[in-house]
């Protein structure tokens, strides 16, 4: 399951070893082991209730495991010395409503030995013009960006982001992605959860799929995508091609006029050969691999489908 066997020689910055965490009868994490090496950008994917936030809260030292061990930067995550190397953006952020944006950043930065200068950080996250606004007057998206600024202000070695761009518009999301990439490019380690598969596909090099408290897949993004056997053949044709040999699913079927159709098949070459040899007229042929969405659906099915 470990994508890179060489990683075993590098001490992990985040390490969970056979970790179980229950809430009453609910087993939120069930014997989970995971090691994240320095400089990795890992996307945690999973349906609602899979255990992602619980995992992050254990790494952040906010909760203890019922069984197993969690290590952060080689130490106990509940030890403040380990936590000074950590930046966290929880799913919901409680900001003091009457403090101004720059005051909050100054205040949090004041707890660290070498904070990022507040104006620099606010500019990086597109919050420069809001520096003097009270946090209670920020929009939801602006609050998310401020939460990420607070996670970055102490120049952390590890960044935990729980759904960092939920509720953001396209521009704000892009700005945040840039900030995450910049942090990672400078050697930072990132563990992020997201409901947006495109976000994980855009950012992560490694994908860990969590479902019902267990790790279902842990591999490079490319390898996860390769696990999906289906290919997408996209073309324009008059004839409805849904029933052609090898087509397991089809979208956009023709109705007597030329229509853009997407045909899912395990063997795109065989399908195209069949269309050509049987004289089907088509144009603008494209063949694509699977998306992360398809890979994810395949990995959490079939039980996941009933959730
Ligand atoms: N404080 C709590 N008390 C009781 N049950 C909890 C608590 N926190 C989490 N759970 C349960 O543990 C399971 C895992 O929840 P968790 O929040 O870790 O999932 P998640 O993958 O982060 O979900 P989402 O994508 O919806 O945020 C769920 O069944 C949830 O209801």
TrEMBL record:
It comes from the Bacteria. The keyword Repressor does not apply. The keyword Transport applies. Keywords: Antibiotic resistance, ATP-binding, Nucleotide-binding, Transport. GO terms for biological process: response to antibiotic. InterPro entries: AAA+_ATPase (IPR003593), ABC_transporter-like_ATP-bd (IPR003439), ABC_transporter-like_CS (IPR017871), ABC_transporter_ATP-binding (IPR050763), P-loop_NTPase (IPR027417). Residues 14-237 form the ABC transporter domain. It is found in: Cell membrane. One of its GO terms (cellular component) is plasma membrane. It holds the Pfam family ABC_tran. It is a peripheral membrane protein. This is ABC transporter ATP-binding protein. It comes from Xylanimonas oleitrophica.
């Amino acid at each position: 399951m470990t994508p890179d066997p060489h990683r075993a020689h590098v001490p992990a910055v985040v390490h969970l070893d056979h970790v179980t965490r229950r809430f009453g009868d609910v087993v939120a994490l069930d014997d989970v082991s995971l090691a994240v090496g320095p400089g990795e950008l890992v996307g945690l994917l999973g349906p609602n209730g899979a255990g992602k936030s619980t995992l992050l809260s254990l790494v952040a030292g906010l909760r203890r495991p019922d069984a197993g061990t969690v290590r952060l930067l080689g130490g106990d995550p509940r030890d403040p010395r380990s936590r000074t190397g950590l930046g966290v953006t929880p799913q919901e952020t409680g900001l003091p409503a009457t403090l101004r944006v720059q005051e909050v950043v100054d205040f949090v930065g004041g707890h660290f030995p070498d904070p990022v200068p507040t104006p620099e950080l606010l500019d990086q996250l597109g919050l420069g013009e809001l520096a003097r606004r009270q946090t209670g007057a920020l929009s939801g998206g602006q609050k998310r960006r401020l939460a990420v600024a607070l996670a970055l202000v102490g120049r952390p070695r590890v960044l935990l982001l729980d759904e960092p761009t939920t509720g953001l518009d396209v521009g704000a999301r892009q700005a945040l992605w840039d900030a995450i990439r910049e942090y990672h490019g400078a050697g930072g380690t990132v563990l992020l959860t997201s409901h947006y598969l495109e976000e994980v596909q855009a950012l992560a090099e490694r994908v860990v799929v969590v479902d019902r408290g267990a790790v279902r897949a842990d591999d490079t993004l490319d390898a996860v995508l390769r696990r999906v056997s289906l290919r997408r053949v996209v073309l324009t044709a008059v004839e409805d091609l849904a029933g052609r040999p090898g087509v397991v699913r089809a979208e956009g079927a023709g109705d007597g006029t030329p229509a853009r159709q997407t045909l899912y098949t395990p063997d795109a070459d065989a399908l195209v050969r069949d269309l050509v040899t049987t004289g089907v007229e088509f144009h603008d042929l494209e063949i694509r691999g699977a998306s992360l969405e398809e890979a994810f659906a395949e990995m959490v099915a079939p039980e996941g489908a009933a959730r």
